[in-house]
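Side project, low priority. Logging it here so it doesn't get lost.
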Amino acid sequence: MAYHVVVCEDSLMTRTLLEKYIRESPDYMLIASVSSGSISKSFLEKQKIDLILMGALTASGTNGFAIAEKIKEKNRKTKIIVLSSVPEMSFLQTAKKIRIDSFC
């Protein structure tokens, strides 16, 4: 059974690459791919999501960590990996504090 994955990433190049890797693997199924970190709660309640790959910051100014924290409050079993190309030490500390499953 494949893991159900959602990609939330503003960078088109990064999002496209992640989609490609997910689609090529028999172990994962791409459920949705969005350019903003604003995943609706109703979507997560209706879909079985095992993994969310989320950008730390979005072009619209949305904070991926704040969204991840809200998701984890309601969906403890959903794994979240926050992605960032910004070498900011506070990001790692924030990820640990809100119990993100992984930070890359």
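Brief comment: Helices lie at 12-24, 41-46, 64-74, 89-97.
Revisit when time allows.
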